[in-house]
Specification:
The chain is of the alpha+beta class. It is built from 9 helices and 15 strands. Strand 8 and strand 9 form a beta hairpin.
Length: 314
């Protein structure tokens, strides 16, 4: 039975999706993918006024009945909030907006007093789940699941493909990837990890991974940033200080079984040092990391876990 390469692509969540799978016949249509993406957007997009999350974020609303997608992401968010000692926090929306990275962008850099004021409404301790209802314990609390929802979307699409009997695929949404199997005659899907070249503003290929099962996601400080007091600050905000992380980490690539887990982990790893990231990943099951950072001499260096080394393409 001859396997054909089938590719689907299109807009998704402010970025693009790409799906490649191998099958004897076309088993999934673009319209099916679009339907799944629309359902997830209606649940959790902060850019859609009619989404569940936008309704929940309205000042006059104190609780909402979650759909299945939202319930899964909120449950996972509580797990990573606990795991990260509060560094991964979806109730960070007021700070995201304040620093100009959210749907309601602020145009000016905030001062310490403004940050302190916004922080009064930040923290998942102000959220609780009762049955299928998400409840605010404090008026004005807003959530933003962009640090986990894209990975979740990749998993939903991957599970959908598997449900159709597809055993060789790669799903990618905005750089978050999950794979199973490989192209015919291959040993997995080849995925490149890039690093920025500050001088030329170009990206350089640092490593190539061969993935035949699992997920790979990357968080970086070089794609989106603000200038603050002469410094470049990345878009990952420390919910505890209220300020973007001051970091020498350029990017963290995480391998995990699911894209949602990898996506959540790469976010809070951005607030750690290279050795800390390695130590933390060792304590987690089936998690591997590849870190690009600037060392004391400001030259670019990489460090990775032993398990990640086994993923490199030979």
């Amino acid at each position: 039975m001859e396997l054909h390469k089938i590719r689907l692509e299109g807009p998704a969540q402010g970025t693009q999706f790409h799906i490649t799978y191998f099958a004897s016949d076309s088993l999934v249509r673009r319209s099916e993918v679009d339907r799944i993406l629309t359902m997830i957007d209606l649940s959790m997009s902060i850019y859609r006024k009619d989404s569940k999350i936008s309704l929940f974020n309205a000042d006059s609303v104190m609780s909402i009945v979650m759909d299945n997608h939202m319930a899964k992401v909120i449950a996972a968010s509580f797990k990573y909030y606990k795991l990260s000692n509060g560094q991964f926090d979806i109730a960070i929306a007021p700070l995201v907006d304040l620093w100009g990275f959210g749907a309601n962008k602020s145009q000016i850099n905030p001062d310490s007093a403004t940050v302190l004021k916004a922080k009064e409404l930040v923290g998942m301790q102000y959220l609780k789940v009762k049955g299928d209802r998400l409840i605010k314990k404090k008026k004005g609390v807003k959530i933003d699941v962009n640090g986990i929802a894209q990975g979740y979307t990749v998993d939903v699409l991957a599970d959908y493909l598997e449900g159709k009997g597809i055993a060789n695929y790669m799903v990618e949404v905005g750089g978050e990837i999950r794979t199973l199997g490989s192209p015919p005659g291959g040993k997995g899907f080849s995925i490149g990890i890039v690093q920025p070249d500050d001088d030329k503003g170009e990206e350089l290929m640092t490593a190539v991974v061969q993935l035949n099962e699992g997920a790979l996601t990357t968080a970086g400080s070089f794609e989106k940033f603000v200038r603050y007091k002469g410094k470049k600050l990345g878009h990952h905000i420390d919910p505890i200080s209220g300020f973007p992380y001051m970091t020498d980490i350029l990017s963290v690539t995480v391998y995990a079984k699911t894209a949602m887990e990898a996506d959540a982990l790469d976010n809070f790893f951005m607030g750690m040092g290279p050795e800390q990231i390695l130590a933390k990943s060792k304590k987690l099951k089936d998690v591997e990391v590849f870190v690009i950072f600037k060392n004391k001499n400001q030259s670019i260096q990489t460090i990775y876990s032993d398990g990640f080394g086994k993923l490199f393409k030979n």
